[in-house]
């Protein structure tokens, strides 16, 4: 192993290890002359020892220092070594299978991004460029072998907004602003047959939503300021935005609507007293409830079926079972 002292800048002496893995620092002509003798000798990162977490930490720390900004060539070399070290450790841990995939992924993504950043800077010598490309391929290939994180396999939640289903404007004077945070969710069915189970089009469902909204806003027994539910799901699994979440809903009843307080209303389009919702609708329900619970920090025990407030048959036995199992 060949060891050479390399002047980086401002009188800082740094030791580089020139082995098969590590490449020399910049050529002497590219290195600024040392500062006068007032400069304090700083040993810089110790690169003479074997690869270790300590060494990588030391490099990481040094890369945060102003000194590293004044030594661009040496900085490039240390960045390379840091990312190579991360990949080496990740490979070792992956073989031993003693580190969770999530931890490996964090390290490998850091290394991958580091290699990419180095390559994008066009500041590498040919040997360094080759090392960065090899490192990048190794990081990518190891990342591809890891189990995908839950966030990567989780389908995206798509909410169709009010304008897409032709919602009428709300009547704010007949609405109650949300007071406090959302703390519970209640599941309903719409109990009408016009849209469910037919694999209807977006326009079919939009039409049904407009009818429900019209009924909620204009029926003399209701006269609400908007559609009562915050979200509606059709048989195709489409999720629609109903009443905006800045307003309390109108769906769970109770004296003076007391059960609506801080209660998100979710309605599946269809009548599910004698048959279950479609798998697509159930999948969207799962997604939506998980998202709402996460966003608003709502416990599983605070997800209800409408019947639990009023004793009605809503939302039918299948969804009532789902709610119970969800807890
Ligand atoms: Zn209901």
Summary, kept brief:
The protein has about 325 residues and is an alpha/beta fold. It has helices spanning about 55-65, 65-70, 70-95, 100-120, 125-145, 150-155, 200-220, 280-295, 305-310, 315-325; strands spanning about 1-5, 15-20, 160, 185-190, 230-235, 240, 265-270, 305. The protein is built from 10 helices and 8 strands.
- Gyration radius (Cα, Å) is 31 Å
Bound molecules: zinc ion
Report on the biggest sheet: 6 strands, mixed
Approximately how much beta-strand content do the residues carry? 5-15%
In CATH, the architecture of the largest domain is 3-Layer(aba) Sandwich
CATH topology of the largest domain: Lysozyme-like
Strand order of the largest sheet: 3-6-5-7-4-8
Q: Looking at the structure, what is the overall shape?
A: elongated
Integer count of domains: 2
Query: What is the rounded distance between the termini?
Result: 62 Å
Mean pLDDT: 83
Specify the helix fraction band: 40-55%
What ranges have pLDDT less than 50 throughout 5 or more consecutive residues?
1-41
Number of helices: 10
The SSE string, one letter per element, is EEHHHHHHEEHEEEHEHH
By helix and strand content, what is the structural category? Answer: alpha/beta
- What's the CATH class label of the largest domain? Alpha Beta
DSSP summary, beta strand count: 8
């Amino acid at each position: 192993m060949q060891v050479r002292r390399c002047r980086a800048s401002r009188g800082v002496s740094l030791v580089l290890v020139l082995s098969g893995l590590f490449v020399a620092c910049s050529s002497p002509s590219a290195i600024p002359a040392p500062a006068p003798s007032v400069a304090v000798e700083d040993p810089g990162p110790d690169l003479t020892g074997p690869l270790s977490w300590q060494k990588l930490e030391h490099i990481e720390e040094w890369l945060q220092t102003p000194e590293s900004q004044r030594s661009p060539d040496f900085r490039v070399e240390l960045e390379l070594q840091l990312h190579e070290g991360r990949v080496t450790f990740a490979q070792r841990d992956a073989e031993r299978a003693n580190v969770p995939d999530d931890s490996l992924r964090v390290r490998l993504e850091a290394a991958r991004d580091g290699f990419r950043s180095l390559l994008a800077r066009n500041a590498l010598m040919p040997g360094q460029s080759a090392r960065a490309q090899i490192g990048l391929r190794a990081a990518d290939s190891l990342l591809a072998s890891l189990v995908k994180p839950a966030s990567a396999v989780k389908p995206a939640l798509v909410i169709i907004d009010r304008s897409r289903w032709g919602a009428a404007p709300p009547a704010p004077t007949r609405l109650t602003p949300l007071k406090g945070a959302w703390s519970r969710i209640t599941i309903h069915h719409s109990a009408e047959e016009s849209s469910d189970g037919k694999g209807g089009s977006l326009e079919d469902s939009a039409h049904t939503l407009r009818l429900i909204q019209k009924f909620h806003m204009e029926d003399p027994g209701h006269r609400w300021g908007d559609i009562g539910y915050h979200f509606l799901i059709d048989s195709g699994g489409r999720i629609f935005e109903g009443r905006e979440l800045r307003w309390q809903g109108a769906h769970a009843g109770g004296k003076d609507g007391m059960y609506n307080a801080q209660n998100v209303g979710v309605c599946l389009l269809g009548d599910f007293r004698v048959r279950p919702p479609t798998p697509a609708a159930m999948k969207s329900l799962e997604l939506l409830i998980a998202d709402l619970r996460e966003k608003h920090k709502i416990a599983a025990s605070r997800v209800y079926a409408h019947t639990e407030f009023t004793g009605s048959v809503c939302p039918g036995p299948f969804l009532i079972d789902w709610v119970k199992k969800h807890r």
